[in-house]
Write a structure and sequence with these properties.
The chain is an alpha/beta fold and 309 residues long. It is 37% helix and 17% strand. Residues 301-309 have low confidence and may be disordered. Residues 112-263 form the Phosphoribosyltransferase domain. It comes from Novipirellula rosea.
């Protein structure tokens, strides 16, 4: 249980909790660290407090939410072993990609492009791209987080810096022009960091007029996926196909409303986390994403400058 905006120390019956419990707090959130340490002392033995260095209360600093996600994924992998093995549908991300490919291989696609959501989604994307002989690229889109509910996205930011607002935005309390600009700068900084890593000297793949397959290794709430959908649709693909191994039924319904087709393998009602459906769900590094992209990209020819005399 991340302690984001939470006070586990105030739970009246915390001593009766028997499930393995993870508390995650930002390293700069001094007061909440102390309160969570108090809560930790009241929890059963199988509990832990993880502190994310450099993070404040809402984990708004670039890269800190990814650390939270990694800690939570590892916790679920460790403590959902029995359930995960019973529910496991995929050996690893490569296996999930192969199973998705079987569902995609019968489709007629126009100049197909596979876009993966980093980091884990790039493994699935690379398998699909290889199987259907498609171009592979990364989609760099970040959700824009609501002022009081950072988990709730009110829009998306594309790597060109453009802001895409969804209809929810007009009902968000505290969403001022100043807040929007500050949030845009934070997310643009993270996008630029990833551009430097993943784009190198290769421009973004052309999207307009093509069959685009947008994929990840699984979708829970879908905030990042919906951000990517908004950015891709704005570039007018011939069709947008979202391909995911597993997603909860509620998220599936929203996905089906936002794109031309959704290819999925399972939408279980007992969905807790993406990791529970994998036998192996190891963290993926930025360098692994870079290596995947480099293997699928053709080198850009270096033309010599000829001077006519």
């Amino acid at each position: 249980m991340p302690s984001r905006s939470g006070r586990p120390d105030l739970a009246d019956d915390i001593e009766y909790v028997r499930a393995p419990t993870l508390l995650i707090v930002g390293g700069e959130d001094r007061t909440v660290i102390e309160l969570n340490q108090q809560a930790l002392g009241r929890l059963p033995r199988d509990a832990r407090l993880e502190i994310v260095p450099g993070a404040t209360h809402l984990f708004s600093e670039p890269g800190t939410l990814e650390q939270v996600s990694g800690l939570a994924s590892h916790w679920f992998q460790t403590h959902l072993q029995t359930k995960r093995k019973a529910n496991a549908m995929f050996h690893d991300r490569d296996d999930a990609g192969r199973q998705l490919t079987a569902a995609l291989s019968t489709m007629e696609l126009l100049d197909p492009l596979v876009l993966g959501i980093p980091r884990g989604g790039m493994i699935t994307a690379a398998v699909i791209a290889d199987a259907i002989d498609a171009e592979l690229d990364v989609v760099l889109a970040h959700k824009l987080r609501s002022p009081l509910q950072p988990e709730l996205a009110f829009g998306a930011l594309g790597e060109d810096g453009r802001v895409y607002l969804n209809p929810l935005a007009r009902d968000i309390h505290g969403l001022t022009e100043d807040y929007l600009e500050d949030e845009r700068k934070i997310q643009l900084h993270e996008i630029q960091r990833r551009q430097n890593l993943f784009r190198s000297d290769h421009p973004a793949a052309k999207i307009a007029g093509r069959s685009v397959i947008l994929t990840d290794d699984g979708v829970a709430t879908g905030s990042t996926m919906f951000a990517a959908i908004e950015v891709v649709k704005a570039q007018q693909p011939h069709e947008l196909i979202v391909a995911v191994p597993v997603t909860p039924p509620t998220t599936l319904g929203r996905l089906q409303q936002q794109c031309d087709r959704v290819v999925f393998l399972s939408a279980p009602a007992d969905f807790i986390a993406v990791a529970q459906f994998y036998e192996s769900f190891l963290p993926i590094s930025d360098q692994q994403v870079v290596d995947l992209l480099n293997r699928h990209r053709s080198p850009i020819p270096k033309h010599e400058n000829h001077i006519e005399r």
